[in-house]
Amino acid sequence: MKVFGIDIIKGSVRSRTRRPVYALARVEDGEVQGVEEVTGFRLQRLLATEEPDILAVDSLQEVAADQRELHVFLQSLPPSTKLVQVTGGEKKESLGKVAARYNISFNKFDPYAEARTTARVAALGAGVEVIAFENTTDIVVSRHRSPGRGGWSQNRYVRKIHGAVLQKAREIEGRLRGAGLDYEKKETKAFGGYSRVAFRVKAPREMVPVHSSRGADVQVRVAGRQLDRIRFEPLSGRPRYLIVGLDPGTTTGIAAVDLDGNLVLLTSSRQMTMSDIVEELYRAGKPLIVASDVQQIPYSVEKIRRAFNAIPYTPKQSLSVEAKYDLTAQFSYTNDHERDALSAALDAYRSLQNKFRNIVKRVGPGFDLDEVRARVLRGQPLDTVLADLQGVPAAKKEAEPEAPVPERPVEDERVIALDGMVKRLRSYVEELQDDLRERDREMERLRQDVRRARSAAERKIRRDAELAAKDATIESLREQLRGERRRSRRLKKRLERMQKVAKLEISEDYTPLKVLESLTREAVRALQEEIGIAGGDVLYVPRTHGWGRGVVKDLAGTGVRALVVGGEPPDPHLIRVAREIDLPLLPAETVRPEIRGRTGAALTGAVEEAIAEWKEEQKEFRREQEAERVEYLFKEYRSEREKEVRRGG
How do strand 311-313 and strand 286-291 relate by DSSP bridges? Predict the structure, then answer.
């Protein structure tokens, strides 16, 4: 397997002036072939020429600035080359941590050393493959030149181009059929052949026997269909080994750390069954050790251990609360059950730290330390493990002549192993059946509790619905009561004002006045609602701004006796309108009213005198109107007479 590892020496993919320069390390069959300095263009040429199995990087930011550029970069890679990010996918970690798993050390400030390390750990199976395309490939065959306007030979030229597109499309279709691939074809007919043919092949790009190319008349573009989101798949399908701590009970606490002591899983739940716990741990990794925080391992923890065939661990004496706090001081948890489970896992890891250090000292670089430690903990000698991982059979010890061991046929050993497995499985089945019966009883009890709770909840819901309806009715009645109270207060105030006016009407010395805010319809409507306007009333208007002819006519229509006008002298147009409809306008200086709120009063003598004076002026106004009318008629008659004289000659 050939692996390329790269790391940026200088420059950046985001810079337009300083393009990146990479340190390129080649690793073939686990051996580093060499390291060199290449530009981005040179790297693309080497990838296209040598077609390595893996191109390894410690960050995607070294090859693309954003997702669009990443799609372009992946499209330019050879179909058989995988882009691998050795530091992980969604959850990244440093290159130093990844290299430490394989007992590899390097200078973090040397790009060449980082490129070598990236290639080596990728060759050992570290990292995730970056997948940006679906398992569907688009092939587009189109013209490579435009026909243009042309001349005498234009038709022959166009037929040549379109015929070349047709011939290339048939050639590609033959390749797809020969490879046994399913595809869909869409053709665009043109003069003499096709101008464009599109194939949608139901296969990944590396399985399609067609490559992008350009000719004199035809071009072929091969591209995978882009995913909506970049996907990461582990390069190695082997799960990581875990040290698991369990705290059983009403609330089950689960904690898992890897063989380097890093926290992988920490959770707790009141509703977890045995199968749920197994599934949760299976998703997190492969439990190597199952630990408890008490000296005697609980029965439920033992069943989980058997399910994974893991190594049991119990402390020499049950952990105290102070010890648990010391072990979990650097971690955060939500309850005591998570704390107990985490302390059990960390105690098991702490007891194995010295053994792990000795293994690291004896193991050379390039080995998967997790696999080595797991096999050693299961009882295999370290030399045998290393020889097995290297692919070299371990040296067999010579049998001592004085104590010959009789050989047992392989079939007998296999039968014995299978018999033991059958016994273990039968006992496990019996335990599961007991658990199932106990669970059925618990389920029936819970069903009864649910029925009782459901009936009580239904009663409560009905009662709450009735109370809500009654509360809504009460609130509606309260709103009506508030409205009626407001209406009662308004009517009471109106009655008081009307009583004041009535008292003034009884008096012979004073004439009551009703105050009209202005000569507008809104003011007239407000006065009508509060006190009322009746025939014979005398209204006081403090200002006449914004008056309207219609309002004055409406007041005259109600039979109002007079309007007392205050403030500045009224508009002459208003006086003329009042003269025309015979509505007395009395100046406030003459009447001298006394106003209190919406009502007032004036001396009856002053009002009568002012009205008499208005009437005298009104007679004079009528005489002037009559004189003007007679004069107008005379002028009209004379004009008509002059017209007749002219016509008669």
Answer: parallel
